[in-house]
Every structure is written in C-alpha cells, then in structure tokens.
Amino acid sequence: xxxxxxxxxxxxxxxxFAVEALDVVDVVVSKLKRFHADDRQDIAAMIDKGLxxxxxxxxxxRSAVDRFSHEARADxxxxxxxxxxQVERDQFDxxxxxxxxxxxxxxxx
Length: 109
Hints:
By secondary structure, this protein is mainly alpha-helical.
C-alpha cells in the first residue's frame, strides 16, 4: 500500500462517531498484489465508474514501490508491475508506464 495511506471521510448522519474509508486508488493499488479474478473485476468496475484516474494510480503505485522495495519481499515487485501494466493495457488502453525497480531485484524477464 502507498504511504501514507489516503483516507476519505464517509458522510454519515450519526454524530457519535466518524467513518473513514481507504481511498479508491489505494484500494486498486492494494488489489494489484493479489490480483485474483475478483480483484481484476473490482478494479475494472472502479475504473469504469470513473473513480480512478491513470496518472493518480501510477503516482500511488510508485509510492508503494518506493516503500516496498526496502522490504524482504521486494522480489515480488516485478509481478505487481506486470499486474499494473495489465490494468493499463486492458482498462485504460494506454501504453505501459515505465516503473523502475532497484537493480538488485531480479526482473524475471
């Protein structure tokens, strides 16, 4: 997930508590990790509804890469980049955005 996560206030009529939800773009970024069929459907629906703008998605994804590239599981990043590229091609119909990973990560290509 990108850091810091972006939270959005959910308007409610109850004055006793406040509700916040994770921003839609951050939800999409987090779904790129698992990327099962239902995740792909959710991502497509959010994009189709106009809730996700491509430049914002790329910005938040890069934020997550910056954070994740310093963890022991950073070797998984090439798969997440491929998942982003699939969303770019299939949902946004745009060329793949170059995402630069640290040299020590095996790109698998």
